Amino acid sequence: MLTDLLGIPPQVLFGQLMLGLINGAFYAVLSLGLAVIFGLLNIVNFAHGAFYMLGAFATVAVTQYLGIGYWGALIVAPLVVGAFGAAIEYFLLRRLTGVDHLYGLLLTFGLALVIEGSFVKMFGASGLPYPVPAQLTGGVNLGFMFLPWYRGWVVVASLAVCIATWFLFERTKIGAYLRAGTENPKLLQAFGVNVPLLTTLAYGYGVALAAFAGVLVAPITQVSPLMGSNLIIVVFAVVVIGGMGSIMGAVVTGLAMGVIEGLTRVFWPEASATVIFMVMAIVLVLRPAGLFGKTA
């Protein structure tokens, strides 16, 4: 077997592949939200990590104060955080229409600092625990590793959301309107389509995707105000590799980078924290638009 030739126990190799796929599922959902916002609104949303964190905290809040369990939080938390994101687009980002994209990046970066700083002040930096739902405790022995049911659920739920989002924006009339609104909003408005409303909803949807990832990650790690800032740079790298604004690129690259990261832990552990940035540098040299991006 290949593992025998490499001198690596198969349990280690396949175990890291599975863990990489789980991490890749988070990368895919987060990158998808960024790709939706940039592709349809041309906004580099640096507050995406903060919205991811808000999704996790919203899960804790609705469980403790509203008595809504994990399954309800999967719906309520993304809706609440997505509505908050839509309000930000309506009251703040819309005012930057027509100016340099750098202003949008600076505004969202400032929002991220304000949101994270406020939550550090209220909850501290250590974070809060959130239990795995009772229906998904335990796991299954795959032979090469013990796979918790919850982590398997994360992969399935992430893939389902990614496929549904791709279908929504690439195969429906709403997606066609959004793409047309990006290219020629005045012409689309002439046909009676409310382009500003579509823009607000698109931004809210991208934010809701980040919050959905926050709900999924809450039972796996500590719910901390800094959890988004620790991940957002990696997610931006994934989006750049896939191609800014490419929905398919975000999903495929997110999953692939998670697997590559897992394999790197086996063959070159010292580079596991930087391998995504190495890949990004190579892709930018060979194909500046990204693997799935459209060249000018």
Concise structural overview:
This protein is mainly α and 296 residues long. It has twelve helices and two strands, in the order αααααββααααααα. Helices cover 70% and strands 2% of the residues.
Give a description of the structure:
This protein is mostly helical and 296 residues long. It has one domain (16-98, 146-286). Helix content is 70%, strand content 2%. The protein has twelve helices and two strands, in the order αααααββααααααα. The protein has a two-stranded antiparallel sheet. Helix 10 packs across helix 11. It is globular, with a radius of gyration of 20 Å. The protein starts with a helix and ends in a 10-residue tail after the last helix.
Strand order of the largest sheet: 1-2
Total beta strands: 2
| Number of structural domains | 1
Flag low-confidence runs: none
Report the order of strands and helices.
HHHHHEEHHHHHHH
Oligomer: single chain
Terminal CA distance: 45 Å
Average pLDDT number? 88
Number of helices: 12
Shape: globular
Radius of gyration: 20 Å
Residue share in helix: 55-70%
Which secondary-structure class do the elements indicate? Answer: mainly alpha
Strand content: under 5%
Largest sheet: 2 strands, antiparallel
